[in-house]
Design a protein that fits this description.
Layout lengths: L1 H12 L1 E2 L8 H14 L7 H13 L4 E5 L2 H10 L8 E4 L6 H8 L3 E5 L10 H7 L4 E7 L8 H11 L2 E5 L7 E2 L2 E2 L6 E5 L12 E5 L5 H7 L4 E3 L2 E2 L10 H10 L3 H20 L4 E2 L7 E2 L5 E5 L1 H4 L3 H10 L2 E2 L19 E2 L6 H5 L3 E4 L7 H11 L5
Parallel strand pairs: 1-16, 3-4, 3-5, 4-17, 5-6, 6-9
Antiparallel strand pairs: 2-10, 7-8, 7-14, 9-10, 11-12, 13-15, 15-18
Helix pairs in contact: 2-9, 3-9, 4-5
The chain binds pyridoxal-5'-phosphate (PLP).
Amino acid sequence: MKDIKESQIDSIEKLYVAQPFLPDLNRVVEMLKSIWESKILTNEGPLHNQLEDELRTYLKVPVAKLYASGTTALLCALRSFDLPEGAEIITTPLTFAATPHAISFCGYKPVFADVLEDSLTIDPASVELAVTERTAAVLGVHVYSTICDTPKLGRVCQEHDLKLIFDAAHAFGASVDGTPVGMLGDATIFSLHATKIYHTLEGGIITTPHEDLAERLRLVRNFGIVDEATVTEIGINGKMNEFSAAIGLLNLPLVAAEREVRKSLRGRYDAIIADQPGLRRQIHQPKVEHSQQYYLMIVDPETFGRTRDQIYDALKERGVYARRYFWPTCNDYKAYEKYPVYSTLEQPVVEKVKNQLLCLPFHSGVKDFHVDIIADVLHNRTG
Ligand SMILES: *Cc1c(COP(=O)(O)O)cnc(C)c1O
């Protein structure tokens, strides 16, 4: 007992980058009762189907399919395009492990292209350099909810006949000039992991503007089973269960309020950083409705006088756990250490910037005194 209490106090005092929001427990119990009554726990049950309908409307897409995780969604999306065996897929090294690992897990080869200095999204000119006759697709990431240069990527993909897929794990609910993020490529995946702004405990979505892909996307997540007597393709168990769907239904109406809280927190962080030479943010995209998944700060140690790691340590000493996200980058992983990063520059942007990235705690659990601590550390005030 004593141990549990102590660890609880510990977790209250420490502030982390993400904090999952949870629906009212009484409403969860109500939902569970309906599951107990139906005795349907998974296999595209009623709550699953209701959530799929609601998400299609919320994300303003013709097709939205649910999965057990964002990673499963990535695997199923990649499988659904029938790319040639061993095909190369060009992606960014500045992403979570799931992105290149899903490519490799499907038997394809991830090829890394550099990112743009201002947006940190994949650089279309570097993508162009990485294209070979084996390239079959580009997998861009709307990293920290900053949206890729989709018009330029679209042109590169059209010219070389490549599929354009997006990992929008950071961009749930984002849009560009009114176009929903789930409509920007041939397929877009979202993660509904507990650390994401909208979550189903674990979960994922694939959206696509191609309505003829819908049935295929459903089959790959369910072993390719069409009916009792017919299995048409190789699939996996990628299904979302009813408990996750219940949490998803209860959480969906809560996203807007959480996003508002984060929007105002973003304003406060922006103000702290604004007058500090050597600290910068990602480019502001005026036409983008932001998901508010992360707040990223970029530290130039020469101008700022302190390194990213020094700030990270100073915050940690005061109970604020920022994250050096994404560091290391994927090209630093053992599996990919021999993989070059294609770049138009002699030193890829990603090699410099990965040591400058710091994501600050960004959720409704961040209180005024936390913001004051962060301001003190960044402005080098003590006590
Ligand atoms: C979270 C995340 C994923 C994977 O999602 P899971 O739901 O944890 O499998 C994929 N890509 C990026 C960029 C992510 O941040």
